Amino acid sequence: MPAGLYRALLTVAGAIIAILVAIGISSVAIVAAGANPGDALAAFFDFGARESSVSNSIARMLNRAVPLFLAGLAVAVGFRMNLFNIGVEGQYRIAAVCAAYVGSTFVAPAPIQITVIIVVAAAVGGFYALIPAVMKVTRGVNEVISTIMLNYIAINLAAFLVRGPFAGERAKGQLTTTTPVLPESAWFPNMNWLLEAVGLPAPRGGGVWGFLLVAVVVGVALWVVLERTKFGFDVKASGLNPTAAFASGIGPKRMVISAMVLSGGIAGLIGLPEILGDQHAFGTNFTPGLGYLGIAVALLGRNSPWGIAVAALLFAFLDRAQGPLQFAEVPPSVITIMQGTIVLLVVIANEITSRIALRREERRAARELGKVSA
Amino acid sequence: MNAETPAVQLEGITKRFPGVVANHDICITVQPGTVHAIVGENGAGKSTLMKILYGMQKPDEGTIKVNGREVAFRTPSDAIDAGIGMVHQHFMLADNFTVLENIVLGAEPRKAGVMLDAGRARARINQLAESHGLRVDPDRLVEDLGVGDRQRVEILKVLYRGARILILDEPTAVLVPQEVEELFENLRELTAGGLTVIFISHKLDEVLSIADAITVIRRGTTVASVDPADVTARQLAELMVGSELPTPETRESTVTDTVALRVSHLTLEADGRALLDDVSFDIRKGEILGIAGVEGNGQSELIEAIMGMRPVSGAVELAEQDISAWSTLRRREAGIGYIPEDRHRQGLLLEASLWENRVLGHQTRRPSRSGIWINRRAARSDTQRIVDTYDVRTPGVDTLALALSGGNQQKLIVGREMSGEPKFLIAAHPTRGVDVGAQAAIWDHLREARAAGLAVLLISADLDELIGLSDTLQVIYRGRLVARLDPSDVTPERLGGYMTGAITGTKET
What we know:
heterodimer; A: mainly alpha; 74% helix; B: Rossmann fold; Rossmann fold; 17 helices
């Protein structure tokens, strides 16, 4: 069996075992909460009885998965270089509020309008990540600390902007403040045809957000960049062995800055699926916490775009069960417990499986060489 | 003596260990109160064997008896409990602690449960030092100590933990000849005091002068147990290698008049101490300049200065072009190759494939790169070329670097640094930790490249290698080039004198 395939299979097997164990552990928590684990499990797979509710459930899951996927990618870019960009949270919020505001200030044909919004979001996210990067390379400030601090600034700055300079008109009876509503040319077409193709009715509300396509493109592009280009090689080398990379002429400062900016740029996109696909503005009820969840998703996905896609879908699948769990009289905080245990156990499983794979590789080399010299 | 219970008896030890030569069917009997040498080329399985004896690895088969009792160590602390101590090749000392603190670290005598009982510790250390003739000042900081003193601290550390059987792994690798003599005196006193020393080495002259018994290991198994009185170094070497020993000698000079690399007035200070002090030299095409020196006298700084990894004052010229302001990458692209002193730290991506390691350092050059892409196919086939030309033993170019033995990793690095027609090569300890076969091959490659006009800066701790390969020798001591010697009429002893500062600086030609 080729080593690559063996490693992949081993990883998948490890992840499945970890998830099963996590379900076991969560069951204990569910029992402790006085509910029935069987009911809880059923709730996760309960997508609703009617076709329309099935289609709503799928849409909700996909819509949750897209920003999680982007967040995971953003974190993973840093992780590959042993950079802990905890600042994804702040980067996406500040990027979202700026992009939503800029997008509302002009009207252009849809492709231009949307492209400008995407570029602004990526640029703002990248710029906000540049700050800790510069602090790290010039003054040696640990990026974990600086990004956490910058998160507070970003979150509060975004909150200020949406109430102050960037605030739009508040509709009568509305409690939330938002940026001015985007012109229709910025409304990203939905992908309900995806569900219709399998014979399900169109879901309610924004439907399946079309930004899914952009996310897929970003994921594939990132994979190509990381795995096939010179830049990707530099990132990999810096992550695996920074001293060797340095001795080989890969400048550590340049790499820190470019990796952080790339990470921040992707982080800038996290808020766009919601803004372009559904809300059409950045509001005070904008979804928070995606940046932090991205850390878990990246860990779960082992920093590879494919793995992150699976991890984002898994998280979204669990998150979707909020409603059904309540109907089954299971506290929905079970979801968080499950997500937490899954991440922990998968990280452990990854560590174990990668060790097994390395050992096997060494053995195989030793065995084949034994044959040669014998 | 043979009537006594052996201090250590290994029988039929077999270890299927990935990556390097496995141990199989090893039998060694070590008598108490002796220095027992275990010799073998690098990669023969000495280290594995010692790890087994020290409880760092479990044997798959075989028995270990210590003082006649069968033992099964699970961890080094089991071995320590059985009275076995290990002095590692690389010292494991905390520089900013005193000798006393280093010795007691992890086994501190306590006062009132929490306080370090320095008085008791000092008394015990002095008593140990006294009875074994290991003179050190317990209150000095380790960072101020020389290599020989550090080694004594390591030995004391082991004795402090009650060891009666000491394993010394290549203890002389870092010492100059004078310090080796001191160490041997210490060892003789230790065995006179009833302790047993297991001495691992591949330096045969030293082994012959210190050992009471010798066991030879080749390809993972014990091939002979001999009495040092009955064998010559030559015979031992042949037992070790199974064939004739290679020599590092270069024959006719290939030195030209063209200066390939000129270094002038390199100076580097840190914390008020000069790490490099006005270092200047020329290396011409076809010349190997050897730098001798005890480790830590500025060699690493010199390399980093030439590679552009560290800002220094002074100038570096490559082929009459001032490259002082260039980045490391630009210097590499201009034709500087670098075989790093520590291949795991600076030379390899252990968890990446061989072909990715081939790309490392050449990521901006053909054949590794085309435009923004890494040219995987070309990199793979060029790696195959290196594997074939440099005899890198590997299942394939997609194998991870960590699966290769040290010698094969090093051959890959040499092959990589020689590709792309370098003008100048830094070879830092090019054959450290590689087996004799690989050593000979690496020497051959260096000689061939030299004949083809490559300028080489050779930095090595192996004095025979330095004397044998170099066209010119310079000695570095406390960041200064203190002597310029002719390798054709210098002995390792005299070189050692310059290296320790015992002989001071006349410039010879």
